[in-house]
Amino acid sequence: MDEFDIARLEREIRQYLGLEPAQLQFEFRELEGQTRLDLITVNPRHQQSFLFRYETGRDKVECLEKMLAYVKRFRDTESSYTVQWSARDDRELHTSYFRAHNVYEALDKLYFGRDLNTITVFSLVLNPSS
Q1: Residues 1 and 50 in one domain
Q2: Among 39, 47, 57, 70, which residue's beta carbon has the most beta carbons within 10 A?
Q3: Exposure pattern of 65-97 as b/e (b: 16+ CB <10 Å)?
Q4: Residues 31 and 8 in one domain
Q5: Positive or negative: CA dihedral 18, 19, 24, 26
Q6: Domain span including residue 8
Q7: Taking the mean position of all CA atoms in its chain, how far away is CA 69?
Q8: Could you list the pLDDT tens digit for every one of the 130 residues in the chain?
Q9: Which 3 state secondary structure label does DSSP give 47?
Q10: Run of H or E including 111
Q11: Is the domain of 17 the same as that of 52?
């Protein structure tokens, strides 16, 4: 596995999305003989992290190549959702935006890696397509 290719692909994905290194995390793990990449976004304002997308492949490079192909076309293939929510013990209402195939996938991205009781959703809206 070529560390140079991994670094290059991660940089391309970050640049394509227009995010700073602190706003995007690449989390790899082995799952049933495959490599899984969870691409996590971190909102700089409230420091909450959300699943952007996951990909599976033979190795890290294949996962990153699939992710790069996805980020180049995702705006054309998925709907945009706006979610208004608050974290438990936080009175502030936050607004987050997700691209997903349906409302359930948008909620999965919002709740990724956390207990369902830690976030209260006040509204989830399918945005009009332009």
Answers
A1: yes
A2: 39
A3: bbbbebbeeeeeebbbbebebeeeeeeeebebe
A4: yes
A5: positive
A6: 1-77
A7: 15
A8: 589 999 999 999 999 999 999 999 999 999 999 999 999 999 888 889 999 999 999 999 999 999 999 999 877 788 999 999 999 888 899 999 999 999 999 999 999 999 999 999 999 999 997 6
A9: coil
A10: helix 103-111
A11: yes
Is 99 in contact with 74 (CB distance < 8 Å)? yes
Report how far residue 77's alpha carbon sits from residue 95's, in angstroms, rounded to the nearest whole number. 22
83 in the same domain as 67:
no
DSSP track, 19-30:
--GGGEEEEEEE
Residue 48 sits in the same domain as residue 58: yes
The number of helix segments (H) and strand segments (E) in the chain equals 3, 6
Which residues pair with residue 100 across a beta bridge? 79
- The domain total for the chain is 2
What is the C-alpha to C-alpha distance for residues 129 and 95, in angstroms, rounded to an integer? 19
Verify that 52 and 101 share a domain, yes or no: no
CA dihedral over 58, 62, 67, 72, signed as positive or negative: negative
Task: State how far the Cα of 37 lies from the Cα of 67, in Å rounded to an integer.
Answer: 8
Within this chain, do residues 4 and 66 fall inside the same structural domain, yes or no?
A: yes
Residue 106 in tokens: 């948008």
